[in-house]
Amino acid sequence: MYLNKVLLYGNLTRDPELRSLPSGVQVCSFSLATNRVYKDRDGNRQEATDFHNIVAFGRSAELISQYMKKGRALFVEGRIQTRNWEKDGQKQYRTEVVVDNFQFGAGGGAGPSGARESGPAESTAAPAGAPVEYPEEEINPDDIPF
């Protein structure tokens, strides 16, 4: 048995781009940054960041492009895929993670370590003890991605 499964939790490095295929299917592409902390051979703490190209299709693409912005956390479950094409006589390659399932991360860009991206648009959280404001539009349970 073979397995092609990817689990990533990180922050978006740019706003998602939503496009439509000629067939009408929605496609959303964005990049996700993940960090890892390790000790080098001298025992010093090091941190490395990896950047992943992510592609979502259909309803997942619509929801991600609607609710996600640069700096926000996202959990992605999917598979690795490498595309190739020819441009100006040169063969081009792009390795991507194709989203099978996803969950929105902690609000406003909080990662597992609690770090946040700060900015003027990030102050949307309600103070503790404030009543929750629900959207005026009806929520269809089929639209919830989890």
Written description of the protein model:
It is a single chain. The radius of gyration is 18 Å and the shape is globular. The two termini are 28 Å apart. The chain has one helix spanning 58-67; strands at residues 6-12, 17-20, 26-39, 45-57, 73-87, 90-104. The chain is mainly β and 146 residues long. A hairpin with a 2-residue loop joins β5 and β6 (90-104). Helices cover 7% and strands 47% of the residues. The protein has a five-stranded mixed barrel. The longest helix has 10 residues, at 58-67. It has a single domain (6-109), classed as Beta Barrel (OB fold (Dihydrolipoamide Acetyltransferase, E2P)), CATH 2.40.50.
Give a brief outline of the structure:
This protein is mainly beta and 146 residues long. It is built from one helix and six strands.
Write the layout of secondary structure elements.
Layout: E1 6-12, E2 17-20, E3 26-39, E4 45-57, H1 58-67, E5 73-87, E6 90-104
List keywords for this structure.
5-stranded mixed beta barrel, OB fold (Dihydrolipoamide Acetyltransferase, E2P), mainly beta
CATH fold group? OB fold (Dihydrolipoamide Acetyltransferase, E2P)
| CATH superfamily heading | Nucleic acid-binding proteins
- CATH class category label: Mainly Beta
In helices, the fraction of residues equals under 10%
- The poorly predicted ranges are 109-126
Number of domains: 1
Please state the average pLDDT score: 83
From the alpha-carbon coordinates, what is the Rg to the nearest angstrom? 18 Å
* Distance from first to last alpha carbon: 28 Å
How many helical stretches? 1
> Secondary-structure element sequence?
EEEEHEE
Based on CA inertia axes, which overall geometry fits?
globular
> How much of the residues is beta strand, in percent?
over 45%
- CATH-derived architecture: Beta Barrel
What is the structural class?
Answer: mainly beta
Biggest sheet features: 5 strands, mixed, barrel
Strand order of the largest sheet: 1-3-4-6-5
Give the tally of β-strands: 6
